[in-house]
């Protein structure tokens, strides 16, 4: 799908009747002056979902419109359930014991 810069701005600003944002904006990269954002949008006429990335000024002094320097490049995406592994602290015998019998601080 090809979009103009103006269409891209309307989409990320929520001003395009054919598009609806379906995920929160996520910061994917940061420099001193610029934040790179992305979100997923529903193209209502086709029912397809697209991820769109754009730049935003990192401070209130950066006057930057989305897609000033580049054209929007929507990527068709689909929602999938993802299972991931995480490293978590090992519960020790001491922490289990203190949860069952908290220390007496009355003396």
What does this structure look like?
It is a single chain. By secondary structure, this protein is an alpha+beta fold. The chain has one domain (5-79). Helix content is 15%, strand content 29%. Strands 1, 2, 3, 4 and 5 form a 5-stranded antiparallel sheet that branches. Strand 2 and strand 3 form a beta hairpin. The chain is elongated, with a radius of gyration of 23 Å.
Give a short synopsis of this structure:
This protein has 2 helices and 5 strands; from the N terminus they run αβββββα. It is an alpha+beta fold and 107 residues long.
- Tally of extended strands? 5
Overall geometric form: elongated
Tally of structural domains: 1
User: First CA to last CA: what distance?
Assistant: 72 Å
Report the total helices: 2
Biggest sheet descriptor:
5 strands, antiparallel
Proportion of beta-strand residues: 25-35%
Structural class: alpha+beta
Q: What low-confidence regions span 5 or more consecutive residues with pLDDT below 50?
A: none
> From N to C, what is the helix and strand string?
HEEEEEH
Q: What integer is the average pLDDT? A: 88
Radius of gyration: 23 Å
What is the helical fraction, as a range of percent?
A: 10-25%
Itemize the secondary structure elements and their pairings.
Elements: H1 5-12, E1 19-21, E2 26-30, E3 34-43, E4 48-57, E5 75-77, H2 93-100
Antiparallel strand pairs: 1-3, 2-3, 3-4, 4-5
